[in-house]
Write a structure and sequence with these properties.
Helix content: 25-40%
Number of domains: 1
Keywords: Chromosome partition
Organism: Coemansia asiatica
Oligomer: single chain
CATH topology: GMP Synthetase, Chain A, domain 3
Number of helices: 5
CATH architecture: 2-Layer Sandwich
Strand order of the largest sheet: 1-2-3
Protein name: MIP18 protein galla-2
Distance between the termini: 19 Å
Largest sheet: 3 strands, mixed
Order of helices and strands: HEEHEHHH
GO biological process, one term: chromosome segregation
Pfam families: FeS_assembly_P (PF01883)
Strand content: 5-15%
Amino acid sequence: MNITQKINDAPLVYEVVSKARDIQQSDFDDAVSDPVDSEEVYELIRNINDPEHPLTLEQLHVTNKEHVFVDDSANRVLIEFTPTIPHCSMAALIGLCIRVRLLRSLPERFKVDIKVREGTHQSEEHVNKQLNDKERVAAALENTYLLDVINQCLATAV
């Protein structure tokens, strides 16, 4: 990324304790119904790179399993994330990266909500509104510079 001035020069880095999800033979069988669960969704987002640091969202505790909620029968996913600092100017970009990762990975039937965890950001209402407004998200994704940054954040996400 080409971000020269960092908002949080020294973020806390946490040990990654997540293990990779066990792959079952039925995961490759299209005839077997495979419900989406919170563990699967967490696996999709945990390795997204932070836009400001060469660390993953999991390493920075921006995302964790306890803040991923999936209701497969209702086709709903809710992701709550925690910016590294309360005035993080990258919060909307982080949320957008999460949204794009899920748009590219989950079946279209899912309605995805992305939110800053309550009380963790000084502009959480504003950021949440941006992240969950289809027109704003579509406009953001038309910006080629922004899309390049998002793609860089997603480059190592597995």
